[in-house]
Amino acid sequence: MIILFVALPLVVAGILPLVGKVSRRVVPDLLANAALLFLLVYAAITGRHLIAGGPVLQQLSWFGEPVAIRLALDGFSLFMLLAIAVVGLAACLFSIDYMEHYGAKANYYALFLVMVAGMNGLVLATDLFSVYLFMEVAAVASYALVAFGLGQDELEAAFKYLMLSVVATAFILASVAVIFGMTGSLDFAGVAKALQEINAGAAVGVASAFFLVGFGLKAALIPFHAWLPDAHPSAPAPISAVLSGLLIKVSGIYAMTRIFLNVFGLTPALSTVLMSLGTLSMVVAAFLALGQKDMKRMLAYSSISQVGYIVLGIGIGTPLGIAGGLFHLFNHALAKGLLFLTSGSVQQSTGTRNLDEMGGLAKRMPITAATNLVGALSIAGIPPLNGFWSKLIIIIALIQAGHPVFALIAVLTSVLTLWYFLLMQRKAFFGKLNEKWAAVKEAPFWMTAATVLLALLCVGIGILFSSTVTTWIQPAADVLADGVHAVIGSWGF
Amino acid sequence: MIVQTALLIGLVLFSVLAILLRDLLKSAISLAAASLLLGIIFFRMNAPYAGVFEISVVAGLITVLFILTIALTKAGDEVRESRAANWVFPLFFIAFIIIDALVMKGLLRKIPALASGAETGTFGDVLWKGRTFDLVGQIAVILAGVFAVLALFRKRDKHD
User: Fold this and answer.
1) Phi, psi torsion values for A225, nearest 5 degrees
2) Alpha carbon distance A367, A354 (integer Å)
3) Strand partners of residue A64
4) CATH fold group of domain B2-73+83-118
5) Cross-chain residue pair A68–B138, CB shorter than 8 Å
6) Which stretches of chain A score pLDDT less than 50?
């Protein structure tokens, strides 16, 4: 019953506002977290058995009559579902304490779950239009969540995000229309098959360019990144964690790689474009992050830079490169989720995001400081944390594929990453305690618990990286490395 | 062909007017006119379902919502707008038209034409048998919209 990944969060979201009338806090907290915990357990434990014999294709029926709900679960989608469930659960746990002062908690969880349902739907969809539609589901919920604080900043950021997101979806929809006009099909398998048969290089080029702009905007690749440094810092911390950790990856990178690699087929030209865009984002955003004073803004630029690594890895197109890119996607989701959560703890305790005003907070918030350090070192690629291994795989793949210059740039950018994260750690947590923060206390239980959970995962995956790669990453990378055959052979209904 | 061209030109003209007009009310009405023309084009191209939806929802319902919202705003709330739109938009528009014409000219001979035919089956059939998963997505979008309105127009109790 893989439809549960979409249906369960939607149903729980539907009843939450009603439940919220009776119980303002406890029951909504419990329901939302239980739903996400269930999805995590379902993805982690049952998922792998489900796809043991190849991809699962599900045709749903309504009172015995088949309806047009077709879902597909393969290694790649299962991997994404797991990432969504892990980071989603951590952010949801963090919300128990963090969202207390915002009010309207039931409503917040409802929007959160609709966003999760949208992302899960996108990951399970088997046709281009459903991809567009579920992308919109997640996006509409996220606009409201960015603006949830109702302050001037939040509303402005949400508006900017909405405007650029609309441009992105317009490009994506235009491309879907071109593809439909050309092949007469929206189904991944149908489109892939038709594109093999007809000779329409120019039209595929136009469609690819539109998709690249659309998904590039969604993934915030440079030069399409303008909205992200405003939208992500303005949102409540758990939402920043989900937006940076998951949403840009699901609606940007997942959709892009699924379509480019499994439906269109990766051409050498497309591979070069992806690698160049990835490298550009990686380098430029790292420099931009270096100059930031706002803690969350620095993290937002860092996200753009790390998305660059992921696109660079996947863009190589070799099995090892794809595995490295996907592994980095997962590691970055965990670590950046963690960092946005710790920045939320700091903001709630001190009331500021300005790094210059902080200092010495490690004395008052030891757990937050320690978990923040784990996240920062993980993204910077320090062994034995998880981020080290994924960056190493990407760099080895680059050298193997004969791109030593790209490999060198990736290494140097990693040094830059370490530089700005150490700056952040030093300014916020180390050094002399600023007098102002003498009364600051460690974050409440659930906020700390969520960050500790993610930090433990960062360390654990770093130590057990080889088994993580073989059980989760490799099956996902195999699907992508298989190219169009993965879809044509087994996805036809 | 002449009617089709006239309809398309009208569609573009009203769309441009909707962007350029300073008066929001006139702008909303231009948008309604544009979508009415688009609806007629849909009918002429054998897509009655799309036409009905375009005219009833976009030209009808959404225009009503726009006009209601405009009526609810107070006079004197004027925001100074950047004048840059006056020259930036035409520039973009002309560039777009040129690129569009070039791309379409390039594609015309390359894309194999799809067999054209009237929409078959009843509307319910199309939606239920053809695109059920989209229906789930639609429900989710509506839920998201409702929750968004509830969240953004809530009483600002403790936070402020």
Assistant:
1) -100, -5
2) 20
3) none
4) Four Helix Bundle (Hemerythrin (Met), subunit A) (1.20.120)
5) no
6) 493
Q: Do B148 and A13 touch (CB under 8 A)?
A: no
ipTM computed for the complex = 0.85
Indicate yes or no: CB of B133 within 8 angstroms of CB of A71: yes
The DSSP symbol for B110 reads T
Angle at CA of residue A29, ends A159 and A110, nearest 5°: 35
The reply to whether residue A202 touches residue B143, judged by beta carbons under 8 angstroms, is: no
**A-chain residues near B19 (CB < 8 A):** none
Chain B residue whose CA is closest to A17: B147
**Count of helix runs (H) and strand runs (E) in chain A:** 22, 2
Using CB atoms within 10 Å of the CB of residue B7, give its burial: 0 to 12 exposed, 13 to 18 middle, 19+ buried: middle
d(CA A425, CA A362): 9
Q: In chain B, what are the domain boundaries? A: 2-73+83-118, 120-160
Who's near A286: CB < 8 A, 6+ residues apart? A301, A302, A305, A413, A416, A417, A420
Residue A388's Cβ-count burial label (10 Å; 0-12, 13-18, 19+) is buried
Digit-coded pLDDT (tens) for A345-384: 999 999 899 998 888 888 889 999 999 999 999 999 998 8
Cα–Cα distance for residue pair A389/A372, rounded to 1 Å: 19
Contacts with A203 from chain B: Cβ below 8 Å: 107, 110-111
Task: State the distance between the two ends of chain A, measured CA to CA, in whole angstroms.
Answer: 17
Cα-to-chain-centroid distance, residue A31: 23
∠ CA B69-B75-B80, rounded to 5°: 95
pLDDT score recorded for residue A420: 94
Q: Which residues on adjacent β-strands are paired with residue A56?
A: A73
Out of A69, A70, A108, closest to residue B151 by CB: A108
User: Would you state the structure tokens that stand for residue B78, as one six-digit string?
Assistant: 């004027």
Closest Cα to residue A104, out of A137, A38, A150? A150
The packing angle between helices A319-350 and A474-481, to 10°, is 130
Q: Which residue has the higher pLDDT, A233 or B89?
A: A233
CA atoms of A176 and A132, how far apart (whole Å): 9
- pTM value is 0.90
Query: For position A313, what pLDDT does the model report?
Result: 95
Q: How far apart, in Å, are the Cα atoms of A138 and each of A15, A133, A253? A: 18, 9, 15
Q: Which residues in chain A have Cβ-Cβ distances shorter than 8 Å to B144?
A: 111, 114-115, 118, 137, 140-141, 144
